[in-house]
Amino acid sequence: MLQVRHLSKSYVADKPVLTDIDLTIAARGLAAVIGPSGTGKSTLIRCINRLVEPTRGEILFDGQDLVKLDAAALRHARRHIGMVFQEYNLVERLTVMENLLSGRLGYVSAWRAWRRKFPKDDIRKAFELLDVVGLSGFAHRRADALSGGQRQRVGIARAVMQEPKLLLADEPTSSLDPKTSVEIMELMASLGRTRGIPVLVNMHDVELARRFADRIVGMSGGRIVYDGPPQYLTDDVLKQIYGGEEWLH
Fold first, then answer.
1. How far is Cα 13 from Cα 28, in angstroms, rounded to an integer?
2. 3-state DSSP assignment of residue 33
3. pTM score of the predicted model
4. Per-residue pLDDT tens over the stretch 95-107
């Protein structure tokens, strides 16, 4: 589904944030990227859909190298890559339903979108998704009237409205309390499983990653130092990822 080959990124010459990343994401399951702050987790996620431009390497998705696509072809490819953001990225003054339907902007004409004339089938799917994410009855509530957890549910539903072939999530729980974080991870894992969407999420909470991920990718210093199932993420591996051991106790 997704192959990252020899991916490197430097914001400043000779100071790489990512170095020679090789990563293959299968057609199902949830993979969690963990590692200390500043090790390139968010940069990796954002390079995959070219919110950040890679310095070198290939990103093969759905038979295309995303790195080589021009603007028009990239817009078309991004229709199939859902994105969930740390800070939700909702349009605050719009309703929940309008935010969900913005997930269909890649599929309707600009004229229809401007007039908010979305197909009835899109509206039906949006109402169904609101039930799935636990926001039934919130369709006409403005986004700025929602709690953080509710906003993230809207963000997830908007991404799923794209009918993506891949779902990326950039620290989706870092602004949330522990209970809500668990609920958000449960929701993403469930949607990925029931709809056959592979999920790649970068996160700080190791225990949350262990609980919900089928696979954990550990990064340190801009490189992948662990890639395997949660049960093999031992203290020794965590020391290699994060350095030291005081934080383990």
1. 36
2. strand
3. 0.92
4. 999 999 988 876 6
